[in-house]
Design a protein that fits this description.
Two copies of one chain form a homodimer. The first copy, chain A, is α/β, with parallel strands linked by helices. Chain A has one domain: Rossmann fold (3-Layer(aba) Sandwich), CATH 3.40.50.880. In chain A, the strands form two sheets. The first copy, chain A, has a seven-stranded mixed beta sheet with strand order 3-2-4-5-1-8-9, with helices on both faces. The radius of gyration of chain A is 17 Å and the shape is globular. Chain A starts with 5 loop residues before the first strand and ends with a strand. The relative contact order of chain A is 0.19. The mean pLDDT of chain A is 94.
Chain lengths: 230, 230
């Protein structure tokens, strides 16, 4: 990790018992204020319907004292990101998001600007997946083929958002989340995976990583050990 | 679909209340006997540990009166498939399976031999995913990057194996299966998707498709309508 990176990586926008982003309100406000940011560019590429999705996020975040604009409303997304101070990359489908970021030549640009400390990054769900080393541990369906699974690499490991401990349904024979992550860990290219439960936030501040939020996380290290953080 | 194709596409090998493959025993036996097949080549590429995986399947199917061999035990997989009468492509990780099939130059060979009626195909879970148009509707984690999501295309549509109707966990905010399939249906390249519940089997016999097994299926058509088959 680069020493100037600033990122807030949310497992999800929604958490049981909270309205949208409510569990993360204090962290998001503190993060943006600390970095002296008032304007926030929202990247809605993980979903269809950019206008509606941006409006939903704007309706939540603007009342907190910030001003949200959709990246799709700028004439040139590359120029917009070159001068942005902060972005929020929303959730949806990780494959669609990563492909659209590549199509718009934004992957390496975002990496460079975040690593140099010029761009503060907030991601949620798919927006968190693409902030990591690769999208190998997304839960999403591969609805479109991206040019690579390599992602923005703000952190040099993988995150599994919406991490859930228990079998989803004991009668259902599909793999559990731990089995799926275990399959990844067996790959030669696999490294560490952080399973972020819904309601959890990873705060990246230079080389410091702080787990925040209300739900904890599970760290999967190579040679598959598991470490609980409550 | 080609008029000579013969395939049996299982949602999964395991089904609640049955031992491994038990729910499909009669169909598999009838299918192989009808096509006068005694030797069955098992393709274990969706999992690590080919020997152990092949042994597990052999221990189930050999007592039914057939002889199972792992494709990995042949010197040349291409030559083995060129002379095989029937294959069973087992479940595990769909991305790993498809990549390994491409690495071994087997995708188009299997397609040609199945379409010409020379090779009978049995697939389960990931082995069913790769038998379809593409792997866009797998549930698996993208643990490795395949050269394409295009698959063997024995059928010209997609299947979602392990299809499950209900939200996996009402407190969990990850997408439901229907939402995930709905995201795919919004893609310009998406067509029909058959959600095969665990315990269901799609029997392909030339241009005829017959739903068999114990659990039914859901058909998702473009412009997202849903049709129930009980």
């Amino acid at each position: 990790m680069e020493q100037h990176s600033k990122a807030l990586l949310l497992s999800s926008s929604n958490c049981h018992g909270y309205s949208m982003l409510e569990f993360a309100k204090e962290e998001i406000c503190d993060f943006l204020k600390k970095h002296d940011v008032q304007e926030l560019i929202f990247i809605p590429y993980a979903q269809k319907g950019y206008d509606g999705y941006t409006k939903t996020i704007k309706n939540v975040i603007d009342p907190w004292g910030f001003s949200v604009s959709g990246l799709h409303t700028f004439n040139d997304p590359v120029e917009a990101i070159k001068t942005a101070r902060a972005i929020f990359v929303g959730g949806g489908n990780t494959f669609l998001l990563l492909k659209t970021l590549y199509d718009n030549n934004l992957v390496s640009l975002i990496r460079e600007r975040v690593c140099s400390g010029d761009l503060a990054y907030i991601g949620s769900s798919a927006g968190t997946n693409v902030a990591t080393k690769s999208i190998h541990t997304t839960n999403d369906m591969p609805i479109i083929y991206p040019p690579s699974f390599d992602a923005i690499s703000i952190v040099p490991f993988n995150i599994n958002p919406h991490y859930i401990d228990k079998p989803e349904n004991e009668k259902h024979k599909g793999e559990t989340r731990d089995q799926r992550i275990g399959e990844y860990m067996e790959m030669p290219h696999a490294g560490t995976v952080l399973g972020l439960r819904e309601g959890s936030i990873l705060h990246v501040h230079g080389k410091s990583l702080i787990l925040k939020g209300v739900a904890g996380a599970v760290l999967f290290k190579k040679q598959v050990t598991m470490q609980q953080f409550q």
